[in-house]
């Protein structure tokens, strides 16, 4: 078989491989199910990376989007619901960006906490507005980012989302706990893209919640 060199061709190949593990004729078993979702996760990362340099496509209201993503993540994470917290802001926070990158940003942060912050971490995403900018602050109760840690896809998605919206993304070095912050100017000029509902994300077995959290989440049967 010829190796696909184009990222989108590789993503399509991974999706076909995933379909063999997740389709109606796939062998039963949790290992095969998770392997199929991990293939989808790799495919989605390749698809999103091709858009890292594209301009913002729409306006996203951070309260609605982050509430839905964190709410859905709390439903499928192997943690007590109180361990996954979202603190919204009392006013709308419209920013420029692409929804796929915001989904990847938030859910990959949650996934990293599930993988590296210990067996029962506390996770929190907070929003605020200061000086005409929206601020997204994420933190967990783990040991913090290791000095020799290599930036992964989630950090790449966060930096790309920040560039698209004319903002910045920063990670706190050391610990205790991991923390990062995304700052974006409020930007209501683009068409507003309505956020999904948390229940819809949980009900859709191929939603970004299951794909990005595939290494540790409770997968749909």
Write structural notes for this entry.
- By secondary structure, this protein is α+β, with helices and mostly antiparallel strands.
- The protein has 2 domains: 7-49; 58-212, Heat Shock Protein 90 (2-Layer Sandwich).
- 42% of the residues lie in helices and 18% in strands.
- The protein is built from 7 helices and 7 strands.
- It has helices at residues 7-22, 30-49, 62-76, 99-116, 153-164, 198-203, 208-212; strands at residues 58-61, 84-87, 94-97, 123-130, 133-140, 168-171, 179-185.
- The strands form 2 sheets. A 5-stranded mixed beta sheet has the order 2-4-5-7-6. A two-stranded antiparallel ribbon has the order 1-3.
- Strand 6 and strand 7 (179-185) form a beta hairpin.
- Helix 1 packs antiparallel against helix 2, helix 3 (62-76) runs parallel beside helix 4 and helix 4 packs antiparallel against helix 5.
Give a short overview:
The protein has 7 helices and 7 strands, in the order ααβαββαββαββαα. It is of the alpha+beta class and 221 residues long.
What profile does the largest beta sheet have?
A: 5 strands, mixed
Protein structure class: alpha+beta
Estimated radius of gyration? 17 Å
Helicity, in percent? 40-55%
Number of strands: 7
* CATH C-level of the largest domain: Alpha Beta
Overall body shape = globular
CATH fold field value of the largest domain: Heat Shock Protein 90
Unreliable stretches covering 5 or more consecutive residues: none
